[in-house]
Amino acid sequence: MLLWNLDPSHGLHNGTCMFLVVQGGDCDIVLIPCMSLDANKEEFTVPLCCHQFPVCLAFAMAINKSQGQSVQHVGLDLHTPVFSHGQLYVALSCCTHPHNIKVIFPQDQNTTKTTNVVFTEVLRGLIEV
Predict the structure, then answer these.
(1) Residue 98 and residue 115: Cα distance in Å, rounded?
(2) Which InterPro entries match (predicted)?
């Protein structure tokens, strides 16, 4: 997952899921620069230098980060219900096939229902326009 906005006009922004491709194929090639961070002697008693790529390994992402993404498999943990308007829709609609969605509900709950947070004020505003 990309951690910084590298080139938003080409879709390279914070939260973009990326795949490391070892061999060529039908894909876009993206150069991800190595960032160097240096601290001078005035700031620290010891010179400090760090080199890193603005990416991290991601096995999971927040619902907000998944908006606009297409993923093959979705696992949704609803031990805590969603807390914002439209989050459940975003979480379930980013999967490419409904058979690849797995949802975990609390064990003490004998149902497969959850709260879908909807702000009716927003919907009323859309209808009136």
Answers:
(1) 20
(2) P-loop_NTPase
In this prediction the pTM is 0.51
Adjacent-strand bridge partners of 39 = 48
Residue found under tokens 């490391």: 20
Give the C-alpha separation, 13 to 5, whole Å: 4
Top mean-pLDDT range of 29-33, 43-47, 74-78: 74-78
How much is the CA Rg of the chain, to the nearest whole Å? Answer: 21
Which residues, at least 6 apart from 52, have a Cβ–Cβ distance to it below 8 Å? 34, 35, 37
What are the C-alpha distances in Å from 40 to residues 45, 47, 48, 51? 9, 6, 7, 15
